[in-house]
Amino acid sequence: GLAEWTRLPEALFDLADDATVVCRCEAVTFAELRAADTTGFGSPRSLKLHTRAGMGRCQGRVCGPIISALSTGAASAPSVRPPLRPVPATAYMDVAKAGGS
């Protein structure tokens, strides 16, 4: 499937040295990600939170697949953050009818 076509080649990681910048937005290097991975921050989410890789302007669209491939830990389920309180759909409809944004 698509995952097979977009999988990163293993040789890519052989080309990277410690100074290679993986996340350009947050200037996170390969060495920083590898160090975080070996100190217990192994899941992609943990690496992101510990190093800020994937938290820049592109939100991980560029470096996300590399971070996932580098992580040795299991991928954790994405955290779900519900709104503070439920907002009924009619509230949005009332704003639209009034011409608000």
Structure notes:
The protein has 101 residues and is mainly α. It has a single domain, classed as Orthogonal Bundle (Arc Repressor Mutant, subunit A). The chain is built from 6 helices and 2 strands; from the N terminus they run H-H-E-E-H-H-H-H. It has helices at residues 2-6, 10-15, 30-38, 44-51, 64-70, 89-98; strands at 21-23, 28-29. The protein has a two-stranded antiparallel sheet. Strand 1 and strand 2 (28-29) form a beta hairpin. The longest helix has 10 residues, at 89-98. It is elongated and about 60 Å long. The model has no long low-confidence stretch (mean pLDDT 80).
Outline of the structure:
This protein has 101 residues and is mainly alpha-helical. The chain is 45% helix and 5% strand.
Summary keywords:
mainly alpha; 6 helices; Arc Repressor Mutant, subunit A; two-stranded antiparallel sheet; 101 residues; single chain
The CATH topology is Arc Repressor Mutant, subunit A
Rg estimate, integer Å: 19 Å
Largest sheet: 2 strands, antiparallel
Per DSSP, the total helix count is 6
Structural class: mainly alpha
How helical, in percent, are the residues?
40-55%
Widest beta sheet: strand line-up: 1-2
Q: Secondary-structure element order, as H and E?
A: HHEEHHHH
Report the average pLDDT across residues: 80
The unreliable regions are: none
What is the CATH architecture assignment?
A: Orthogonal Bundle
According to CATH, what is the class? Answer: Mainly Alpha
Strand element count? 2
Content of β-strand? under 5%
Q: Tell me the name of the CATH homologous superfamily.
A: BFD-like [2Fe-2S]-binding domain
